[in-house]
Amino acid sequence: MKQRALLIAKWLWLAVVLAAAVWYLARNGPAVAEQVRSLHPEQIGLSIACLVVTKFILTEITRRSLHPSQSVPRFRSCFYINGVTQVAKYLPGGVWHFVGKFAYYRGMALTATEAGQAMLVENSWLVASAGFFGIILAAPSLVKQSAALPLALRWLGETPQVAAWIGFTAWLLLLVLIEFAFLRNAARAFQRSLSLLVLQAACWFSAGLSFWALFPATARHEAFPLAVGAFSLAWVAGYLTIFAPGGIGAREAVLVVLLAGITPPGYALVLASIHRLLWTSAELLMGATAVIGGVLGVDWGVQPAPVVEASDSGGAPG
Question: Distance between alpha carbon 33 and the CA centroid of its chain, in Å?
């Protein structure tokens, strides 16, 4: 019953997002077209390049999420798994990318517990790192824009360096706690966590930079670092909005709200929508590369288990 309700909610959400997009374009078509034409090819190129870097770093994060005591797969194996499964998150149901990844892990000789733990660790890393990174970069700018905040929070805007150090410290401690909680490697917990923090920060900086690159040259100075940090926070919102396949609509709405102090809502929405198209295109390209490579004989080093086996083992976290 719950699954049916969730499926209905997803279809309704997609219908609402589509209707809102049609309504907005009908009212603002010429203005939107002008905004799109104002983008230069080098902006699109830089955005795509940053997205490619982001996808490669996310692949490495997937690789590191597997238990250190296990035989860690090659990078290209994780590239293939992410490529063929991430597109499934746009399908109604919302769990197919988890189910697919779980099946591939089982086919790589991981037990159901190990596969589920790896996915839980990876998703905890992604949500926590995007949240911390977004707050560290965006909070000082948001505080300066809001005169309604209590005095107890004004220091975030006045001393952003102190706030950043506190954020990074809390972020690192959380990563260490995850290492201990899952008994991954207590002896090297700090070293592994510090390395992972740098990798995660690079991932979300690259992702945020791909969005920031779409701003006009005259507005980029004002938009940085708020736009970079706001994207990470918007990504978390979309990721946790389970009734929105791929976070469609939710991510864009949060970006409009967070950027309201530096850009008109309509323009922020256009930039968010263009970035969504580029983001989805990068995922489709990654998936096509994995599939076509397999057809051409590339040995990705993966062998999926039957999906039914993943279902019998309790499903995937999500």
Answer: 28
Q: Which amino acid is at 205?
A: F
What integer pLDDT is reported at residue 82 of this predicted model? 93
Three-state secondary-structure class, residue 253 = helix
- pLDDT of 37 reads 86
Domain ranges of the chain: 2-19+41-312
Distance separating alpha carbons of residues 249 and 12, to the nearest angstrom:
12
> Above 50 in pLDDT, residue 314?
no
Q: Calculate mean pLDDT across residues 241-270.
A: 90
> In degrees rounded to 5, what are phi and psi of residue 3?
-65, -40
Query: How many other C-beta atoms lie within 10 A of the C-beta of residue 140?
Result: 22
Q: Which of 299, 304, 163, 312 is nearest to 225 (CA)?
A: 163
* Cβ atoms within 10 Å of 169's Cβ, excluding its own: 10
In three-state secondary structure terms, 261 is coil
CA separation for the pair 256, 269 (Å, rounded) = 6
125/17 Cα distance (integer angstroms)? 29
DSSP conformation letters of 28-89? HHHHHHHHHHT--HHHHHHHHHHHHHHHHHHHHHHHHHS-TTS-PPPHHHHHHHHHHHHGGG
Cβ–Cβ contacts within 10 Å for residue 195, how many? 13
3-class SS at 83? helix
- What's the average model confidence in pLDDT over 216-232? 93
Average pLDDT for residues 193-198, to the nearest whole number?
Answer: 95
Span 178-188, mean pLDDT? 79
Q: b or e along 67-104 (b: 16 or more beta carbons within 10 Å of the residue's beta carbon)?
A: beeeeebeebbbbbbbbbbbbbbbeeebbbbbbbbbbb
| Average pLDDT for 17-23 | 82
Cis peptide bond N-terminal to 317, omega within 30 = no
The answer for residues whose C-beta is within 8 angstroms of residue 114's C-beta and 6 or more apart is 66, 67, 70, 105
